[in-house]
Each structure stands twice: as C-alpha cells, then as structure tokens.
Design a protein that fits this description.
The longest helix has 19 residues, at 90-108. The protein folds into two domains: 3-161 and 203-226, Rossmann fold (3-Layer(aba) Sandwich); 172-200 and 230-270 and 286-313, UDP-galactose 4-epimerase, domain 1 (Alpha-Beta Complex), CATH 3.90.25.10. By secondary structure, it is of the alpha/beta class. 42% of the residues lie in helices and 16% in strands.
Amino acid sequence: MAVALVTGVAGQDGIYLARELLARGSRVVGTVRPDSSEATRMAAYLDDVDVRSLDVRDTATFATLVEDVRPDRVFNLAGLTSVGQSWREPKLTEEVNGAAVERMLDVLVGRDVRFFQASSAEELGHPAAWSPYARSKARARAAVERARAGGSFACVATLYNHESPVRGPQFVTRKITQAVAEIALGRRSTLTLGNTAVTRDWGFAGDYAAAMADQLELDGPQDVVLATGVGRTLDELVQVAFAAAGIDDPAVHVEHDPALMRPADVPVQVGDPSTAERLLGWRRTVSFEDMVEHMVRVDVERLRSGVDESPAYLLPA
C-alpha cells in the first residue's frame, strides 16, 4: 500500500487531499500543529487518517516521522496561509512557509520520496510588490527547484484562489458566505468588506486536490498552475452569494471599511491552467457559481442545524 504524508491535513486543502488519496487506496498520515484545536474537523473529515502532531519548524521531529512512516509521497500543505497575517508576522511567515521547506527537503535527500509543495499566485508579479507571504512562498519554490536540480522528485503547484465550505472564516470568501447566511436568517444585517473591485481566479478546492494527487503520479517532476482561467471580481462573488440566499440587492447590506484594505494588493490575478490540462488532463468540475452557492447553502445549514462540520458539506449536490 502506498503511503502519503500530508502536512497541514486539517486545513481545507489537507481535508480534500487526504480524502482523495484514501479513495485511491493510499494510507494517509497527516500532521497538525501541536496546539491544534481542530478535533471536530478531524473527527468529521479525517477519521481514516493517521493524524500526528508536528510543528513544521521542528526538523528533528519531521525526520523521525519520515523514518517511522516511510512515505512514498509527501505533500506539504502546512503553513501560514493568510496574506493579512503575514504582514503582521513576517518573520514567523518566513520561517514556517520558507525555511521549514528547505529543511524538509534536506531530510528527504537520498530517499525514494516524491515531494509536493503548495505555492500561490500571490508570489507572481513584481517582487517589490510581494507580501511577506509571497516572499516566503518564493523561498520555498526556490528550495524545490534546487532539490530537483539535485535529483529529487520535487515539484510545485501554483494555486490560484480555491474555496469550499471548509475554508476558514478568516478568509474573505467564507466571511462573505457566513455573513450572507446570517443575514438571510435574520441574525445580522450588514457585511463589512474592504476592496471589492479586485479580480481573482476562484476554483473549487476539491478539484485542486485531485490535481495535486495526479501531479505526483507523473513520470517526472513537473510544475503546474492550478486555476480556472476566468477572473471574477469580489463584487461578483458577493452578488452570487446574496442571490443564493434569495437576496436580490446586496448593496442594502454591504458596507465598506478602508481599514480592511491590504497594505499592497494586486488588482487582477487570473491563472493559465493549460499546463495542468495538458500534463494531468485536469478540468474543473465545479463552476464559480455552483461553488459559491454551495458554500452559502452549507453555512445556512450550519446555522439552522448547529452542526458545524459534516462530510455532507464537502461536495455540491
């Protein structure tokens, strides 16, 4: 039986990837932070995963884990994923997202292990405009490229925005769908946002997880971009979310707060999925509208039922 080690397994991508790998017949070992409070999520989504505690900065513990588990595949999804948080904690972001990856790859040198690194569209554009998050991801990418040049099977996927009902509420998409659900049920009246004119390329996290698994099955290491190729403004996402809840005029409920603007923000980010389509035969299966509508429906169900996490929430009907 193939063995996959997935760091950050209790996050959005980790949940979808672990379940994808299990469905393909792999044993999955996943890691969570030592101080993780994700017991409810793990019970709901990861009951067949062997979950271990790991701070990715702790190289010795990672090396011990690799020796114990002897994985065929390592998917590094752990890290600080909030661009906003990276501005507040740049040193921590650099250590967790960048330096830790360098040390992981050092541990894997000489082993017959394939390594996947999740990167981000945030690192595209001119370096002078990069956030600390983008700089940390660029450092990790460089480490992968060095490892590959040295003979390791190591690759990167550049992930454009991808969402689901298990996206954390600190992210703007989930902030929106959660607020819309509350407004629809009469539990609040307004949604406060920053810049809603930005254009992003939004896909469904489950589709992207399948591509991650496929990427490590290629004959040789290849980097890909995971994106839909279609840009939508945050305003459009807001409109679709409110419409999904039966509210036709979002403007009545949406307020704008300049304090929520990022220190630096790229106006437009749209990816080119042609490499993933060519190498992996990858196609998205969930549209932008279906994804947003599904997220709203799940958040409404959460409020009505009091059940925060359920496998029934993962995939659109």
